[in-house]
Amino acid sequence: GLGSQMLQWRRAYSEWTRASSEDDDDE
């Protein structure tokens, strides 16, 4: 259901933001 989709989205978002933060830190 929506809960499952949200969990998957938040999980991917967490990984993406973590990788993005590392790249942004360089700037």
Topology at a glance:
Elements: H1 2-26
Features:
mainly alpha, 1 helix, Vacuolar protein sorting 13 homolog A
| End-to-end separation | 39 Å
Summed up, the domain count is 1
Task: Please mark out the parts with pLDDT under 50 across 5 or more consecutive residues, or reply none.
Answer: none
Order of secondary-structure elements: H
Q: Per DSSP, what share of the residues sits in E-state strands of 2 or more residues?
A: under 5%
Mind explaining what this structure looks like?
The protein is mainly alpha-helical and 27 residues long. The protein has one domain (1-26). It contains one helix and no strands.
What would you say about this model in short?
The protein is an all-alpha fold and 27 residues long. The chain has one domain (1-26).
